[in-house]
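Q: what sequence does this backbone want?
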């Protein structure tokens, strides 16, 4: 089993889809943001505040190298900016979770933990800047993706089933 690398914009539901995939397959899931938080013993938001974004991106680069060299048979969900890693394609099959910007924001705002979800993502604090980031990134996400899943108005379970079906066809 090749690794599956989940990419996509902040709040698109990478974590929720990953949790459904592992319920319905033999994949183990890891999350690049979780790895960084546990290695640093502080939250992403705090890392951004105390060290700046460049430091965080360096940590992502270290994780990307480790994933390429040492991780197999794993579903890897990534932070929204992880797609910039040069070795991304060497890590595994790239699956993009895709949705329009407004639908992503609506999804976050309707979540019972909306305030927490917004607060933990420093790059979502200014929605105008976040939309600009989305517009810059979406073509890049699409270029990199081996598989695209439109997650708009679909449950995480439905997305996970679609993902597993498409991955099976791809390999
Ligand atoms: C980021 C996305 C976040 C996290 C960090 C930076 C980004 O992850 O890695 O705040 O650059 O898009 P999520 O996509 O899980 O929110």
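A:
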């Amino acid at each position: 089993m090749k690794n599956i690398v989940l990419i996509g914009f902040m709040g698109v539901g990478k974590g929720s889809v990953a949790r459904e995939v592992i319920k319905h397959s033999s994949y183990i899931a890891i999350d690049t943001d979780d790895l960084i938080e546990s290695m640093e013993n502080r939250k992403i938001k705090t890392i951004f505040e105390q060290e700046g974004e460049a430091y965080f991106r360096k940590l992502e680069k270290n994780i990307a190298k480790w994933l390429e060299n040492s991780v197999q048979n794993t579903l890897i969900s990534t932070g929204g900016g992880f797609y910039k890693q040069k070795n991304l394609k060497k890590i595994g099959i790239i699956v993009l979770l895709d949705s329009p910007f407004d639908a992503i924001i609506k999804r976050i705002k309707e979540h019972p933990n909306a305030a927490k979800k917004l607060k933990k993502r420093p790059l979502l604090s200014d929605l105008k800047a976040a939309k600009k980031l989305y517009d810059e990134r979406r073509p890049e996400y699409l270029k990199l993706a081996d598989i695209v899943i439109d997650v708009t108005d679909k449950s995480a379970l439905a997305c996970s089933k679609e993902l597993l079906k498409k991955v099976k066809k791809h390999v």
